[in-house]
Specification:
The chain is α+β, with helices and mostly antiparallel strands. The chain has three domains: 130 residues, Butyryl-Coa Dehydrogenase, subunit A, domain 1, CATH 1.10.540.10; 104 residues, Butyryl-CoA Dehydrogenase, subunit A, domain 2, CATH 2.40.110.10; 143 residues, Up-down Bundle (Butyryl-CoA Dehydrogenase, subunit A, domain 3), CATH 1.20.140.10. The chain contains twelve helices and eight strands. Strands 1, 2, 3, 4, 5, 6, 7 and 8 form an eight-stranded mixed sheet that branches. Strand 4 and strand 5 form a beta hairpin. The protein is globular, with a radius of gyration of 22 Å. The mean pLDDT is 93. InterPro entries: Acyl-CoA_DH_C, Acyl-CoA_Oxase/DH_mid-dom, Acyl-CoA_Oxase/DH_mid-dom_sf, AcylCo_DH-like_C, AcylCoA_DH/ox_N, AcylCoA_DH/ox_N_sf, AcylCoA_DH/oxidase_NM_dom_sf, Mito_Isobutyryl-CoADH. Keywords: Flavoprotein, Oxidoreductase.
C-alpha cells in the first residue's frame, strides 16, 4: 500500500461510525440493530429474500469491515469482539449473521496469507471498508459435495492468454446475492493440476445463478448455486493455488477456532431467541382450567431451567474459546459440536413443552427450530468431529 492509501486507511479508522468496540455505547448500537432486525426476520424467512437492508445497516456502522486490520481502515477486531457482534445479530436474524460470519472469517485471515498478491489483498479490504463489499469462499459442488471429505474440485480453471477461464458450478454459496468477491475453489488444467482459490468479481460476465436456495431453514442466506460459464479472470487472480497436499493448505488452528466460535454463535443466538419466546409465552399463557400462567407450574419452571442450563454451558464454552482460556486450539471443533448440539436441544425442549403453539407458523418458535437444525450441515460435521477426537485420544494413549 502506498503512503496516501495508508494515510487514508488510518483516517477512516479514526473516523469510524461505531463507538469503541468494548463500550456501553457499542453495546447500545448492537441492541438497536438486534431489535430492528428482529422486526423483519419473519418476512425474510417467508419470502426467502436476501437481507440487503440489514447488511446496509451494518455497513452504516462499519460492521462489515470489523475484522479488516486497523491499518487498512477496519476495526482490527479480536475474536471476543467479533463474537459480541455475531451474538447480537444472530439473536434477531441468523441468516444475516451467517453472512457476517463468512465476512469476518475471510478478512481475519486474508492479510496474513502471503500467497495472495498484496495489491489484491488490500483491494478486497479497501472495498469492504469503503463500500461494505462482501466476500466468501465458494467450495461445495453438486457432484463432489463438501471438500472437507476429500477429492478434487470439478470446477476447472484453464489458461487462456494472460488469464484464466473458469467453468463449473458451486452450491451452498452463502450470501451470493450480496457478494462482490467470490473466492472460487478450483483446479487448474495443468499436469499435475494445482488446486486452490481463483478470485472472481461477482459481476464478471459468465457468472450467473443456477438452482435457487430453497431450504428448510436459514432461508434468507441466498445460498444459491453459482455457475461459471467461460468466466475470464486475470492471471494474478489465481491467488492461492498449489499442488494438493502442499503445506499451508486449509485452515490453521487459529482459523479453526475462529470458525468454531463464530459459526456456533449463530445457532446459539437462535436458541436464545427461542428461549426468550418460550419464557414470554409461558409467562402470559393462562389456561382457563389453571387460572394462572403456565410459568407458575413447577414443570414449566424446570423446563426453562433446563434450557437456561444448556445456554449457560454454551456461553461459558464460547467465551472460554474466544479468549483462549482453558480450551486448546485443537479442541475448537469439539466446541462447535457441543454448542450447536446444545442449541438444538434447547430449542427442541421449548418446542416439546409448548406443543401446538410452538409449531404454529403464527409464532416464531417453529422458525427458530428450522433455523437451528441447520447447525448440523456446517463443516466439520458431527461424525468428523467425533472421529477426529477419538482418533487423537487413542493416539495419545
Amino acid at each position: 500500500m502506498n503512503a496516501p492509501d495508508f494515510d487514508a486507511g488510518l483516517a477512516r479508522a479514526a473516523a469510524r461510525r461505531h463507538p469503541p468496540l468494548d463500550s456501553a455505547e457499542f453495546d447500545a448500537v448492537l441492541a438497536e440493530l438486534t431489535t430492528e432486525f428482529a422486526a423483519t426476520a419473519e418476512a425474510y424467512d417467508r419470502s426467502g429474500e436476501f437481507p440487503h437492508r440489514n447488511l446496509a445497516r451494518l455497513h452504516e456502522y462499519d460492521l462489515l469491515s470489523l475484522t479488516v486490520p486497523a491499518a487498512l481502515g477496519g476495526a482490527g477486531a479480536s475474536l471476543p469482539q467479533a463474537l459480541n457482534v455475531i451474538r447480537a445479530v444472530a439473536r434477531s436474524e441468523p441468516s444475516t449473521a451467517l453472512v457476517l460470519v463468512m465476512q469476518y472469517l475471510f478478512h481475519h485471515r486474508l492479510q496474513g496469507n502471503p500467497r495472495w498478491p498484496r495489491d489484491l489483498r488490500e483491494r478486497v479490504a479497501e472495498d469492504a471498508v469503503r463500500d461494505g463489499a462482501l466476500i466468501n469462499s465458494l467450495r461445495v459442488e453438486p457432484e463432489l459435495g463438501s471438500p472437507a471429505r476429500g477429492g478434487l474440485p470439478g470446477t476447472l480453471a484453464a489458461r487462456s492468454g494472460d488469464g484464466w477461464v473458469i467453468n463449473g458450478s458451486k452450491i451452498y454459496s452463502t450470501g451470493s446475492p450480496g457478494l462482490t468477491w467470490l473466492a472460487v475453489w478450483a483446479r487448474s488444467d495443468e499436469t499435475p493440476p494445482r488446486v486452490g482459490v481463483w478470485l472472481v468479481r461477482r459481476d464478471t460476465p459468465g457468472v450467473r445463478v443456477g438452482a435457487p436456495w430453497n431450504h428448510l431453514g436459514m432461508r434468507a442466506t441466498g445460498s444459491h448455486e453459482i455457475v461459471f460459464d467461460n468466466v475470464l479472470v486475470p492471471a494474478a487472480h489465481a491467488v492461492d493455488v498449489q499442488l494438493p497436499g502442499e503445506p499451508g493448505a486449509g485452515l490453521d488452528a487459529l482459523g479453526v477456532a475462529w470458525m468454531s466460535v463464530l459459526l456456533s454463535a449463530v445457532y446459539d443466538g437462535v436458541a436464545h431467541a427461542a428461549r426468550d419466546w418460550f419464557a414470554e409465552w409461558a409467562a402470559t399463557r393462562s389456561p382457563a382450567n389453571l387460572g394462572a400462567p403456565l410459568a407458575s407450574l413447577p414443570s414449566f419452571q424446570q423446563t426453562l431451567g433446563r434450557i437456561d442450563a444448556l445456554l449457560f454451558s454454551n456461553r461459558v464454552l464460547l467465551d472460554a474459546t474466544a479468549h483462549a482460556e482453558r480450551v486448546a486450539l485443537d479442541e475448537a471443533p469439539l466446541v462447535k459440536y457441543t454448542v450447536t448440539n446444545q442449541a438444538i436441544e434447547a430449542v427442541q425442549i421449548a418446542v416439546e413443552a409448548s406443543g401446538n403453539p410452538g409449531l404454529s407458523r403464527d409464532n416464531p418458535l417453529e422458525r427458530h427450530y428450522r433455523d437451528v437444525l441447520c447447525a448440523r450441515i456446517h463443516t466439520p460435521q458431527n461424525d468428523s468431529v467425533l472421529q477426529a477426537a477419538g482418533r487423537a485420544a487413542f493416539a495419545g494413549r
